[in-house]
Design brief:
This is DSD1 family PLP-dependent enzyme. Helix content is 29%, strand content 25%. The chain has 388 residues and is α/β, with parallel strands linked by helices.
């Protein structure tokens, strides 16, 4: 269930570019920060492993012991089940043809929860459970901010769905995701988004309970609200995924600092167009993704900020454009375009860690807490699970 990078190396100066790098020192710092927050708030932390899609990274989150995780594909669920994980939430709306794979995991002893927000989904989950003789644990998605899917707490379908699931032995709880928090540009906006996320989920759970329907799980979370939450009374678990790596979108919101970004992509200078003020690299959107999430923020970071191979930011240097395999680096804010000969290696910090990670088969791992070398040593190579 894994793919293996074709090349391993002693330092970041060795592998063929472009390739993804994880700074384990920064990742552990990010992991510890949210773990301490969840512990303080008295909730279970259920990391969303769609960002890293790596058993190695998940082991960092859990101290090497399989604990609750969230996934975004059944391939992730299957790979993590093969890795010993038995408490998994599949946080994308379920459809009928995926249920055989869900049931196969349940029969293996994996608690795999599914997500739904319609009477139709509840009906086919309930029917499949009856036919299989095993309840498919299901959570009802609640819409707390109009971002994507889910039911409003006053939707009559909420109780209908709850009854259908309960009668089939499938009702597990409610789940919400404050997707609009990714546009919350101040600490107060994020605090209010976290409060609304919590209040909405708890209100939905209380409405179901008032109708005699038991609710075991009240699940909330996004990376911005997880870090902004002050009170999670009534919530049982907190979800987040991006926080393990962070990215420029999170830094632009103020959730983290640039120095907290644990994921980068190493590229090589392959050309110059001085008449345009361009440095050309071999890392285009196939290496960085097309995500331009910072374009909606006060500070547009293009396709990524540029550092040297040791991770030191190069003032004013940004990856401003990308084609499939070519990246264009330019200077801004009055900065002078540096003289970077062909063959020079650089690292680019991504807009969206989840999207950038998905472009690569694995991660070359360094530790900035142990070395300040111009070409940091590669400690190991971590694979990503299949299904990416």
């Amino acid at each position: 269930m894994t793919t293996t990078p074709s090349t391993t190396a002693g330092t970041l100066a060795d592998p063929d570019t472009p390739f993804a790098v994880v700074d384990v020192h920064k990742a552990l710092r990010n992991i510890d920060r949210l773990a301490a927050k969840a512990d303080h708030l008295g909730v279970t932390l259920r990391p969303h492993i769609k960002t890293a899609k790596s058993l190695d990274v998940a082991a960092l989150m859990h101290g090497a012991a399989p604990n609750p995780v969230t996934v975004s594909t059944l391939a992730e669920a299957e790979a993590f089940a093969d890795g010993g994980y038995t408490d998994i939430t599949y946080a994308v709306g379920i459809d009928p043809h995926k249920l055989p794979r869900v049931l196969a995991l349940l029969h293996r002893g994996v608690t795999l929860r599914v997500l739904l927000d319609s009477r139709e989904q509840a009906a086919f989950v309930a029917e499949a459970s009856r036919r299989a003789g095993i309840g498919v644990p299901a959570q009802i998605e609640i819409d707390c901010d109009g971002h994507r899917g889910g039911l409003k707490t006053d939707d009559p379908a909420l109780l209908d769905i709850g009854r259908t699931l309960h009668d089939a032995g499938c009702l597990d709880g409610v789940l919400t995701h404050a997707g609009e928090s990714y546009f919350a540009h101040s600490a107060e906006e994020r605090r209010l988004a976290a409060k609304n996320e919590r209040d909405t989920a708890v209100a939905a759970a209380e409405k179901l309970r008032a109708a005699g329907l038991p609710v075991a799980t009240v699940s909330v979370g996004s990376t911005p609200t997880a870090h902004a939450a002050e009170d999670l009374t009534g919530v049982t678990e907190l979800r987040a995924g991006n926080y393990v790596f962070f990215d420029l979108v999170m830094a632009g919101l103020g959730v983290c600092r640039i120095d907290d970004l644990a994921l980068s992509v190493v590229v090589t200078v392959i050309g110059h167009r001085p008449e345009y003020g361009w440095i050309v690299t071999d890392g285009g959107w196939m290496a960085m993704s097309r995500d331009r999430g910072t374009a909606a923020q006060p500070r547009d970071q293009g396709y990524g900020l540029v550092t040297d191979l040791a991770g030191r930011p190069i003032p004013g240097l940004v990856m401003s454009a990308a084609s499939q395999e070519h990246g264009t680096i330019t200077a801004r804010d009055g900065a002078t375009l540096p003289d970077l000969p062909i063959g020079t290696r650089l690292r680019v910090l991504p807009n969206h860690a989840c999207a950038t990670a998905a472009q690569h088969r694995g991660y070359h791992v360094i530790d900035s807490g142990r070395t300040a070398a111009d070409a940091p040593a590669v400690l190991t190579v971590w694979n990503r699970v299949s299904g990416w």
